[in-house]
Amino acid sequence: MFIGREREVAALDRLYESNKFEFAVIYGRRRVGKTALINHFIDDKEYYKALSIASNKHAVYGIQVYDKRDSQLPDVGLLRVADLETGIEQLVDTSSKRVRNDYGRWWYERQQTMSDTLKRCRVNSISVATDEDYVAALKGLFKQRV
Description:
The chain is α+β, with helices and mostly antiparallel strands. The chain has five helices and four strands, in the order αααβββαβα. The chain has helices spanning 6-17, 34-42, 47-57, 97-120, 134-145, and strands spanning 61-66, 78-82, 89-93, 124-129. The strands form two sheets. Strands 1-4 form a two-stranded parallel ribbon. The chain has a two-stranded antiparallel sheet with strand order 2-3. The radius of gyration is 18 Å and the shape is globular.
């Protein structure tokens, strides 16, 4: 179940089904579910094949901008979190080393899956933290394709 984003998913589906070139910009405040929206949208799409075809014919780049604070849970005791897809809230005990380690492992595995997928589709990519020099990272990325 994906709550409250039906209109956006329908708009993305219309673009996906179009027979012409389409481009979508997804923007908004931090922590409002943009990533969850994209993940939900591509769940049933065969994007690997399309991404591989596109990268063979065009310069396709994967660019991730992330906040380093998203890669680990801080030790702040009980933390109320909400699942943006279901709206379900729960308490997470961030003082537990196991919980923090599990989250860190989940973050790493998610990053690895993204990286492996882009490599499999022959898409050059970078991940840039919000406190890093993105210009240098972009220059390096674009030099890979030349």
